[in-house]
Specification:
Layout (H helix, E strand, L loop, with lengths): L6 H15 L9 E10 L15 E10 L3 E12 L2 E15 L5 E11 L7 E10 L2 E8 L9 E13 L2 E12 L12 E13 L2 E10 L15 E10 L1
Antiparallel strand pairs: 1-2, 1-12, 2-3, 3-4, 4-5, 5-6, 6-7, 7-8, 8-9, 9-10, 10-11, 11-12
Length: 239
């Protein structure tokens, strides 16, 4: 059976981006374009790797306006089972600074797998960011293209032990609101965690981390068996 997505879900990131581009002239007076390129020891998404191990190139581009609207894209090589391809993600949203420091944001994104379009999906999110950390809550009405409503919450933090050495951490929790059996989606809950160190070199950062994901036996279609605990590394360059 062909999986269909409501048109309003598929258009959500595009509508947000259109709002940013069609805003009054002063909103476009200042644009801040940033990005990064990176290589990772493997691809992991919310604690899981859907394919074989291998070096993974990635790229990110962000466009921010002085009125708070932003948009961007992320691209990563990815292997689903033994089929190579790319994960492409476009997102758009609105962020606002808090008087007490930090900022809040709202946005939506569309995730596209070039070798597995049946798993494409949309999600929206809300988040808070502070000097040394951030948190986000995501909602997907059809996670991975299945009839599964899913929430994913995450906390990311870092602590500068030394000007040349940072501790970094991540904790995520995936919750299936629909229940039932779906490949790669837990019956109820699944957590993932990461702790490591980041070493900056000017605009470049080297990161070494220990990954852990709850092994609930629920894997994606053609998903190979990976150990729940594993070391990973990454090298990124920001511009």
């Amino acid at each position: 059976m062909t999986r269909r997505r409501p048109a309003c879900q598929a258009l959500a990131p595009l509508l947000l981006m259109q709002s940013m581009l069609l805003a009054p002239g002063p909103a476009l007076a200042q644009l801040d374009v940033t990005g990064s390129v990176a290589v990772q020891s493997e691809y992991r998404y919310r604690g899981q790797n859907p394919g074989e191990y291998g070096l993974t190139p990635q790229a990110t581009i962000n466009v921010d306006t002085d009125r708070g609207w932003y948009g961007g894209g992320f691209a990563s090589a990815i292997t689903v089972g033994d089929v190579r391809g790319y994960k492409l993600q476009g997102y758009a949203g609105y962020a606002r600074r808090l008087q007490s420091g930090g900022s809040w944001e709202l946005g939506c994104s569309h995730i596209n797998y070039t070798q597995a379009h049946e798993n494409n999906f949309n999600e929206c999110y809300a988040g808070l960011s502070f000097e040394r950390g951030s948190t986000r809550l995501y909602y997907a009405p059809r996670y991975l293209g299945y009839d599964a409503r899913v929430l994913y919450g995450e906390i990311n933090a870092f602590y500068p032990v030394h000007p040349r050495f940072n501790l970094v951490g991540h904790l995520g929790l995936l919750h299936n609101l629909s229940g039932g059996f779906f490949p790669g989606i837990p019956d109820a809950w699944r957590y993932d965690a990461r702790i490591g160190v980041g070493i900056p070199f000017g605009r470049a950062t080297l990161q070494l981390a220990r990954e852990h994901v709850q092994d609930d036996g629920r894997r994606y279609t053609m998903y190979p068996v990976h150990p729940p605990r594993r070391w990973s590394w990454g090298l990124s360059y920001a511009f």
